[in-house]
Design goal:
InterPro entries: DHS-like_NAD/FAD-binding_dom, Myo_inos_IolD, THDP-binding, Thiamin_PyroP_enz_cen_dom, Thiamin_PyroP_enz_TPP-bd_dom, TPP-bd_CS, TPP_enz, TPP_enzyme_TPP-bd
Enzyme class: hydrolase
Helix content: 25-40%
Radius of gyration: 25 Å
Largest sheet: 6 strands, parallel
GO molecular function: 3D-(3,5/4)-trihydroxycyclohexane-1,2-dione hydrolase activity
Pfam family, one: TPP_enzyme_C
Protein name: 3D-(3,5/4)-trihydroxycyclohexane-1,2-dione acylhydrolase (Decyclizing)
Oligomer: single chain
Structural class: alpha/beta
Amino acid sequence: MSTIRLTMAQALVKYLAAQRIEIDGQEVALFEGVFAIFGHGNVAGLGEALYHVQDTLPTFRAHNEQAMAHAAIGFAKANGRKRLMAATSSIGPGATNMITAAALAHANRLPILLLPGDTFATRDPDPVLQQVEHFGDPSISVNDCFRPVSRYFDRISRPEQLLTSLPQAISTMLDPEHCGPATLALPQDVQTFAYDYPEAFFTPKVNRIRRPPPDAYELRQAIAALQQAKRPLMIAGGGVHYADACNALAEFAKARGIPVAETQAGKGVLADSHPCAVGAIGVTGSAAANQLAEQADVILAVGTRLQDFTTGSRALFESNHKTLIALNVGRFDSVKHQALSLTCDALAGLEQLDEALVDCCASNEWREQTETLKREWAKTVHQVTADQGSALPTDAQVIGAVNRQAGNDTTVVCAAGGLPGELHKLWQCSGPGSYHVEYGFSCMGYEIAGGLGVKMAKPEREVVVMVGDGSYLMHNSELATSVMLGHKLIVVVLDNRGYGCINRLQHATGGAGFNNLLQDCHTVEAGAPKTDFAAHAKSLGCEAESVSGIAELEQALVRARAAHSTYVIALDTDPLPSTEEGGAWWEVAVPEVSEREAVNNAYQGYREAKQRQRH
């Protein structure tokens, strides 16, 4: 057997560079590159190894470890989980900074290869700089915190362990059911240890995504239920995107007159102009989708994990006379909510349902109701997103302005606060790829870094990041990275002077305004400073301006589209209003006992709402 002597780090990057994947009949590199912030735990081993493979596995420098991992995750999501990136840091705060990103990837079922440095396997120099010592277990390091937020975890304590662990990590990230972050903790000394690796280990490999077909019995059950349906509804989740099933779902629904509602991850499966598209579902759903969900007799949920925002905390589908079919590649998701399980790839499942249900269609009354509700919701969206000439516009009005300026080549990116809910309700999608919102983990600070990842994945698209002042202040450093790498973003900063979304929730649950809006926080007598976001963005190398009102915003968006570098637009917005139309109940626990009458009233409403939950 021919061998090649390499350090563990050299073998790792050589293997990653040899990985390929087939997409639409074309072979491309599986890994776009590696985001890296070097420290003493990875610079001499992995850093030296990466230096020699820059032509085949580029290294990208970032400014924050969490943010660089967010960018890598955004890249994978924008590529439909078919192309990946890795992220490496030193042991210590660099590693722990990435744990939040790992949790985000885990919650959203998105792949990223995390390569944190680790303490010495030999323990000769212990305790080393940044080492957190555990008095009763010296085998533990901070990297063990990655275990609960990784789909695959290993600590490479000997260089030959790569031979078994690295293929498993990549297999996990490409598995449609178990997809998520894989973490390989790399002790800094082991990174530098040499081993005679088999040359065959580095043979280029073309990876392919599995498409498991449906079980015959489960398929018959689903077909029988759909054949009896008079008022069917489909819910499209993120799995439809990842299975390349958007066109199949669009054709399936149109042929049978079945309305389609979308989750946050599923939004964009259908263009808003599709006759069966009835908008978002659930807590942040359209009035059309939610009314149809309440009245439907059979619901076919495709590629969704049916989280609380989709189901209205299990109260939107409260009727026991409703049949729920969960078509999902993951068994864990397909058996939720007492559903009829159809565990399979979304495209494979839809294709077989399509063949079996040629003569199946919704009733004429249901089609007419769908058309009426769709028209009524379109009028509502137009009204709430129109420019009212206010000095402090609402989030909805800002969304309307950005949406009107967006072309078919635009992808909107967002993550946390009130904006994702308003976008879910109100953004009019041009089709797949036009909507990228991280809401599985609702992670403040994802927006700008995630937008960078989207732009790296789809450089031909105009990427518009919508972000509140709170998230911007948490993570903005990758603006400088976007300028450095030449990946242009348009960033719209909505400054409502605080955490407006949680302030509204605080009031909705009977609480008093406290510690959310800056005016309600503990401050010096002069109050919290007014941040000049445009000046800050300019200091990071961006083009930027501050505007007032919707008319000025629309003019600025034209200038931003014409710009060649990242362009930041900041404007003040009203923190109080949100779109009242549409929506569904969301369970947020309210105190049973309080001295405030408003809280007691909210608790009574909470108890009444819980009676509608389906268990």
